[in-house]
Amino acid sequence: MNSPRLFAASCVALIVTAMSFALRTAAVGAWAAEFHLTYEQVGLINAAAFWGFTLAMIFGGPLCDALGMRRIMGLASLGHLVGILLTVFSWNYWSLFIGTLVFGIANGSVEAAANPLIATLFPEDRTTKLNHFHAWFPGGIVIGGLAAFALAKLDLGWKAQFSTMLIPLAIYAFMFLGQAFPRTERVEKGVSTGSMWAACFNPLFLLMVGCMLMTAATEFGSQNWIPTILSNAGVSGILVLVWITGLMWAGRQFAGVFVHRISPPGMLVLSAVLSALGLYAMSRTTGTMLFATATVFALGVCFFWPTMLGTVSERFPRTGALGLAIMGGAGMMSASYIVPLVGHWFDNAIAVRVPAGDTKDALMAAAPGTARAAQWMQIQASAGLESLGKLAALPSVLAVIFLGLYLLWRKKAAPRIVAAAAPASN
Questions:
Q1: How far lies 84's CA from each of 146, 164, 417, in Å?
Q2: Residue 415 DSSP symbol
């Protein structure tokens, strides 16, 4: 078994997942114009990726034990190929929706297999290695965002941009080809399926699932709309997203330093505080200062997702692949609701800002460079920043919960799985 190759291939697979995120957010305006869609409808299309992700996590996580992680990764590569082709050749709302849904299922399959794979390969340093792995989600967003920006400058549209994902897809499919995979930690240690399910009903585990709903909504609810919203607020929205995710990539590469000095629960407290401050500041900033406030937000959300998974894997090891799947599924389910909800807030905030006697359609049709076009941009900027500010309530609540968990766990070491005397049935 080639552990470094399995880890590297998992990272490339996550890059494909993340590139789709960046390319979809960059395509919001083009989809709305080309297919005559509202922002809420585009939000529903993007939410389909999260619904597909949730389905794959819920069903794929437990199936890792039965089918094996290699087969789940094989299904992921097939789903990515089909999802790319369906999206590129889409012609209306529903074709975009279905293509995005299929791609979301492939994305969820990657995480359903990769999270327990990495937890199994590196049992003594799970939180750090999961942070290193998940560094390639923001890393992939940087790659996808820069690809979108560069190809747009070359007058190549969103379809050409989406096609770039075929390159990393081919790379990770080849890297996994013929490789031996380990059995999941739960199976290897002989922990029964019944014990795994029972562990998932631990009240503190369920509290972590509830927190995952809010951490994911904080991260994805904002990042899905940042390119569109901030582009009207005096900066390139896609470059702000690249800046945020670039900082996240760098931070996760050095996660080990924070894990060992602060502890995972302490990292979660700090992340929640910085995320709340960052979103609040962004909602009240325009122009180049958005890069400064976005930096605070990036430092906040940087460790949320992988540290939540690492904490659960360390504190509730008997939940196994199912526990990680529930956490990932909950996070993406939350994102599937928050993304169109922010789009709904955005539409409503625009509606109340349109002057009496004027219409949204008339403002949208204004010629570039005119006073009415500038007025339309100002309306969208103000409405969008207000929508981002509403999300700050979520990490504010999380800061209180995580502080309580930090105090509870401060003197308690994380439990470890002890091998059973005889292997139990799976």
A1: 18, 10, 40
A2: P
Could you give the domains of the chain? 3-409 (1.20.1250.20)
Q: pLDDT above 70 covers what percent of the chain? A: 92
Looking at residue 366, the DSSP 8-state letter turns out to be S
Q: What is the mean pLDDT of the chain?
A: 84
Angle between helices 3-26 and 237-253 (to 10 degrees): 160
pLDDT, position 274: 94
Q: Are 61 and 322 in contact (CB under 8 A)?
A: yes
417 vs 165, higher pLDDT = 165
Locate tokens 């502080």: which residue? Answer: 403
Provide the 10 A C-beta neighbour count for residue 108.
31
Residues 6 or more apart whose CB falls under 8 angstroms from that of 26 comprise 144, 145, 148, 149, 152, 158, 161, 227, 238
Q: Is 102 helix (H, G, I), strand (E, B) or coil?
A: helix
Can you read off the two tokens belonging to residue 182? Answer: 């380990």
Of the candidates 251, 242, 223, 247, which has an alpha carbon nearest to the alpha carbon of residue 50? 223
Cα–Cα separations (whole angstroms), residue 21 to 45, 161, 168: 12, 12, 14
The C-alpha angle 362, 28, 87, rounded to 5 degrees, equals: 130
pTM of the model: 0.73
Q: Which residues contact 378 (CB under 8 A, 6 or more apart)?
A: 232
Residues 6+ apart with CB under 8 A from 261: none
Give residue 374's pLDDT. 84
Q: How confident is the model at residue 188 (pLDDT cuts 50, 70, 90)?
A: low
List CB contacts of 407: < 8 A, sequence separation 6 or more: none
